[in-house]
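User: quick one, fold this
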Amino acid sequence: MPCDILVRLRSNLCLWGEPGAYTGIGCPRKHGNQFKLNEPTTWGEPASVFEVDDPKLKRVRVSVWKKLHFRKAATRSMLMIRVERLDAQGNDRVSKPLWLAWVGEEMPPIEEVWRLYLRRFTIDHWYRFLKQRLHWTVPKLSTPKQCERWSDLMPLMTWELWLARDIVTDNPLPWQKSFDKLTPGRVAQAMGGVFAAIGTPTRPPKPRGKSPGWKLGKKRSRKNRYPIVKKTVTRPRKDPSVAV
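Assistant:
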């Protein structure tokens, strides 16, 4: 499936460059020189280097290397980007730089591609908010369709909280401080007053007396069971060998 991928890399990874020309002897090489992220002597000259002034990060230096790949993916070359924050004298402001790798179909302008990764900060916090405050993973649903429907409600609830931030009144708990600018969690905490004012389109439940129960002659079917998704595979322990 064609897609664009921008990922962050560990600072101790080792990548490989393109192999040289085929010498005509033996099997053609798949890898060139090593490119170790924690050894500057293996980097070589970057394809391009430029510095920009960012409103939040201040002075930033971006270095780019092309046509690098992982050892197990020799046919998939990528673009390597090194982002450094500088001080007024041009020295490193943060000791640990940011390493990014780009793989995709259509490359954005090199001056903008490194800024795309900054959006991940907001996305990661949004996922944490869904799990902790909107209880995304709490319901134990039975079918994949129910899971998809529940997941589709998460963006809608987020937009409701965003639109209601100017009409709700802060309702802090006894140990919380009052805020003028409410966070999404504090807006959700104050949504009770909004729901009480607008009401609900559902009808109140009506007493029906004794339930008729299961109809005679209606067949019963077992509930569909789905395999449990596990992050790790538990392997059986091997019994220690006993010397005879």
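User: anything notable?
Assistant: The chain has two domains: 5-118, 133-197.
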